[in-house]
Every structure is written in structure tokens, then in C-alpha cells.
Amino acid sequence: MVKVPPQNLEAEKSVLGSILLDKNALIEVSGWLRPEHFYDERHSLIYINILELFESGLPIDLVTVSDKLKRKKILTKVGGRAYLTELASFVPTTAHAEEYADIIKETATRRGLISSASEITQLSFDETQDISQVIDKSESLIFDVAQAGIKSHFFHIKELLKDAYERASHAKESDDYSGISTGFRELDVLLGGFQRSDLIIIAARPSVGKTSLALDMMRHAALLEKKNIAFFSLEMSNMQIMDRLLGMQSGIPFWEIRTNKLTEEKVVKLANTMGELADANIFVDDTAGQHINQVRTKSRRLALEQGVDLVVVDYLQLMHGNTKESRTLEVGEISQGLKNLAKELNIPVIALSQLSRAIE
């Protein structure tokens, strides 16, 4: 008897119904629920078109989704307007959209494991393959399944302070500007602070202090102006970011924090500094190699859950886009995506950019 692959059509219908009734349900799940997670092809097609509407900034409801599917000539293929109406009426409550999506992702992961297991079995039977290559390929297949659809996870700075303290133990008020103060008076006079909907590019060649400058600016905004900051660190880890912030705030060189060179007096000073930083609403995401759509989705979700006043990306060239014709076009697409994010959330977005040493 042929077994039916793991799936839960009720959960698929419920999450789509939730999205059709409440756009916020999409914000809850779009960062990690992908079209290929759906077992029913109709549901996958509907979700793809919902995402396209969302990325275009258009409303999402029965009328707009139905119209988009109709213009693509696939409305009948997904069951027609009647099926969309059925989805909207099927869901008992939109409040559980994330739980429905969790079920969908779990069944998709199980299907992925089954597929990977089948491929691993074939590799293992092929005696022409070197065993080390078989093991490497098998690990890669399982890892890909595990990584697929991982949820975004910001770490509040309080979550990082304990580890930072353990590592360290072992080893003027802002002026009133219309925007968020940069922390530098002369720059604030010129710019009026970081303005809403602006994309600010801080560009310089490697190793001249772009990250330190950005961290100092967001530290000032978080501590003195009580702003909520989202920091996407595509190069440095949470640990490295935390050490730098602690060094800036305490005045203790961060290399001392990392190399167990602290005197007892400095350990006490560092502990006091952690108390100051614990009140800062800085949210750090150190996921490497993020896609521009992931950054936008995570920022939207943070805006919904916590509120966000400033987004900082370090750095632009480490992100990925959809354009594959050339890296120049891809970076242009990423920049436009960040500008759209600034406009959509009505906040300033700062992106660090690395210039080539060839300019020298």
C-alpha cells in the first residue's frame, strides 16, 4: 500500500483563510512559510500570488486575490472564486495563523526528510561513490531540510548580556531635531537627523570603521532617544556586536573584554554598563547571507510586535536579491528594496556599503 506523504490540508486552508481575512496574519508567517511548504498545488499558487500582492504594497482580500489569479488565467485552476470564499469562511479564527503555519512547515519538513532519505539511500547503494563524499552529501541534504523555512529570530539585547558578562569576566542629551539624532551635532545640523522614509548609505573602503560608526549612532538613538532599533549584522556575530557595544558604552577597549585583560575595577564598570544597555531596545539579527525579502519581512514583523524606529543593515553587499544577470543589478535591486522598506514603515533605514580598494 502506497503511503500518503505527510500533509495537513486543514491547516493549509486555515492559514490561507486567515490571510484573506487579516493581512497581519501574512506578516506573522511570510518570513518563513514558503509556497513549496504547501502540499496542495492550489494552495501553493494562491500563496504565491498573495505574496506578490504583499510585496507590491497592494491590499489582500477576496477581491484582489481573485482578480490577480484571474488576470494570470489560473483562477479556475485553483478552484475559482467559490474556493477562495470557502477558504475565508473555513478558518475558525485568524488569531492562530502562526500555529497553522507551524503545522504546514512541520509536514513539509517531514516530506523533505523523506525525499532526502530516498536520495541518501540511492547514494549509499552506489559503490562507485567515495564514502566521504556520500557522507558529505548526506549531511548537506539533511542540513538543507533543517534550514528550510527557519523562523526569523531577533535576540533582545538583554538575552545577550549574560553571555557577554561571562565572557568579559573570564577573558550630553540629544538636541531636538525633526529626525533621529545621529549623535554628532554638526551632522544633525546638516541633516536634521535621520529622517523618516530615508535610505542612508554609509559607504567606505574596508576596515575604516563603518560598523563602529553605525553602532555608535544606534547606541545613541536607543539610549538617549529611547528608539527601537533593528540591527541586521550579516558579517559579525551577536557576540562580536555585543562586545563592541559594551566597549563603546563603558570606554573599555573591546579587545580587553575579549581577551581576559580586565581588572576587578573594570569588571565592575562593565557590569554597570550592562545595566545601562539592558534598557536599550536594540534587536540584533546576525543571520548570514540574508535575502532582501527576508530583511523586509523581519522588519515588518518587528514593527508589528515591538515597534521599530530605525533599521540598520551591515552591510549591503552581503545581502542577496532576485536579479542574477549581474551583481551590479542585484545590488541595485537590494538598495531599492531597502528604500521601499523605509517608505513602507515610514522610518529611516541605514545601509553600510563597502567600497572597492580599487578607488585608491
Automatic annotation (TrEMBL):
Q: SUPFAM superfamilies of this UniProt entry?
A: N-terminal domain of DnaB helicase, P-loop containing nucleoside triphosphate hydrolases
**What EC number(s) would the UniProt record show?**
5.6.2.3
Please provide the record's keywords in A-Z order.
ATP-binding, DNA replication, DNA-binding, Helicase, Hydrolase, Isomerase, Nucleotide-binding, Primosome
**What is this enzyme's catalytic activity, as reactions?**
ATP + H2O = ADP + phosphate + H(+)
On whether Isomerase is a keyword of this UniProt record, the answer is: yes
What GO molecular function annotation could you give as one example from this UniProt entry? hydrolase activity
* PANTHER family xref list: REPLICATIVE DNA HELICASE (PTHR30153:SF2), REPLICATIVE DNA HELICASE DNAB (PTHR30153)
Protein name in UniProt: Replicative DNA helicase
Q: Please tell me the species this chain comes from.
A: Candidatus Dojkabacteria bacterium
What's the gene?
dnaB
